[in-house]
C-alpha cells in the first residue's frame, strides 16, 4: 500500500467514525450533534504525522495486518485531536489550523445570542473539554478493534503516552503560573513528556508492536521518538512567535499574550533587552506593537539565536540516535529525512 493510499484508508476510518457519532448524537440534542460535527471538522486539515509514523514503521518491520495498523493510526489521530482540544481550553487559544477552535466556536454561538462573555467562555470551555474527553475515549475504543494478541500492548502504549503527556502539560501550566522555575533543562524535559511521547515515540512503538518487532525495537523507537519530538517542539515554539501565521494557522502573538514559558523565554530571562519589556509579556491586552517589542527583545537578547542553534544541535543528535540504531534501513533513512524536515519546517 502506498503512503497516499494508507493515508486515504485512515481518513476513511475517521470519516466512518464521525458519521456514526453524528448520526447517534442527532436525536439526543441539537448542540450535541453540533459538537460532533465540529469535532469531525477539527480533525481535518492536519498533517497526519502520527498515522504516517505508525503505518510506515509497521510496514518497515514487515507487518502483515494492515487493517489493524490503519485502525490504530486513526486512533492516534483522534488522540492527537483530543489533546489539542484540551490544550486550546487551557491556553485559551481561539484559532488553530486557520479557523476558530471548537471552544471558541461554541463561545461565539452564545455570545451572538446576547449572553454575557463569562457565560460564553464557560460554554465554550465546557464544550472543548467534553469534546476532548470524547475523543480520548474513542481512541481507546478504536484500539479495542485490533486483533487480541496486540490489543493490550497498544492500550499500554497509549496509556503510558497520556500519563507522560499529563505530566508535561501540568509542568507547562506550572511554568506559566510561576509555580515552577522554567529553567532550560526543565523546559526540555517538559517537551519530552508533553509532546515527544504521544506524538512521536508512541506511534513509532505502536507500529512496531503491531508488526511484532519486539522489546529492543520498541526501546530504540522510544529514544528516536523522544529526540524527534523535542526537535519538533523547539521549532514549533520558534514558529509560534516568529513564524508566518498564514502558513502555520496559529497566531504569532498568542504565546506572548499568554506568557507562555518556552525555551525562547527561558534563554531571554535576565538579559537586559528582555528585562526592559518583560512587563508586556503575559499581558492579556497585548497589542501588535507590544508583541513586536517583545520579538525584538527576544532577538536582541540572543534568545532566538540560542534556540535556532539548539534546534541544529538536536537535529544532529536525533540523526545520530537514528543512525546508531538497528532499525530497518529504509525506516532509518525516512526518520533522518523527517529530522531534517522538522528542523526546517515553516508550518
UniProtKB/TrEMBL annotation:
InterPro entries: Isoprenoid_synthase_dom_sf, Polyprenyl_synt, Polyprenyl_synt_CS. It holds the Pfam family polyprenyl_synt. Its EC number is 2.5.1.1, 2.5.1.10, 2.5.1.29. The keyword Nucleus does not apply. Its cofactor is Mg(2+). It comes from the Bacteria. Keywords: Magnesium, Metal-binding, Transferase. PROSITE patterns: POLYPRENYL_SYNTHASE_1, POLYPRENYL_SYNTHASE_2. The keyword Magnesium applies. It is an enzyme of class 2 (transferase). GO terms for molecular function: (2E,6E)-farnesyl diphosphate synthase activity; dimethylallyltranstransferase activity; geranylgeranyl diphosphate synthase activity. Belongs to the FPP/GGPP synthase family. This is Geranylgeranyl diphosphate synthase type II.
